[in-house]
Design a protein that fits this description.
By secondary structure, the chain is of the alpha+beta class. Helices cover 24% and strands 36% of the residues. It is built from three helices and six strands; from the N terminus they run ααββαββββ. It has a six-stranded antiparallel sheet with strand order 1-2-4-5-6-3. The radius of gyration is 15 Å and the shape is globular.
């Protein structure tokens, strides 16, 4: 069930979050080439292209890339719920890798959902899905609003 949005927050569009990605994140995060596909009251959906520079010697996408995409997706989800960016920091990010993402997967869908918003802490979860919908990675997060 979606969480209610903050009645003081304005609706944030995918284009606005895409702009935030290009202006507030470190250059190496921008190089993930994440694309904001959808914004919902309780989260966001991103596309993570699977590119050669993120594939390790075993022929699969590196876990570090998935974790960076998951962390970024949750910052965008929190920003969307708040009606815009607010300084925050990751307190906890725990990731379970369930199946490999092959180098020819094309893209991974990254879905970040806010489970419990608070005044100081926000709890969330992220799913990284293969093109066939199978779960490749699952993460839980806690963010502190600064």
């Amino acid at each position: 069930m979606p969480l209610p949005t903050d009645t003081h927050a304005s609706a944030v569009t995918p284009a606005q979050l895409q702009e935030l990605l290009g202006s507030m994140f470190a250059p190496w995060v921008q190089e993930l080439d994440l694309v904001v596909r959808a914004v919902e009251p309780d989260g966001v959906m991103l596309a993570l292209p699977v590119g050669a520079r993120h594939v390790h010697g075993g022929g699969v996408l590196c876990g570090q890339t998935l974790m960076a995409a998951a962390d970024t997706a949750m910052v965008l989800a929190v920003s969307a719920q708040l009606g815009g960016f607010r300084p925050m920091t990751t307190v906890q990010l725990q990731t379970s890798f369930l199946r490999p993402v092959p180098k020819d997967a094309g893209e991974v869908t990254v879905v970040a959902r806010i489970l419990k918003p608070g005044r100081q802490l926000v709890f969330g979860e992220i799913e990284c899905l293969l093109p066939d919908g199978k779960l490749a990675a699952h993460a839980t997060t806690t963010y502190a609003l600064l």
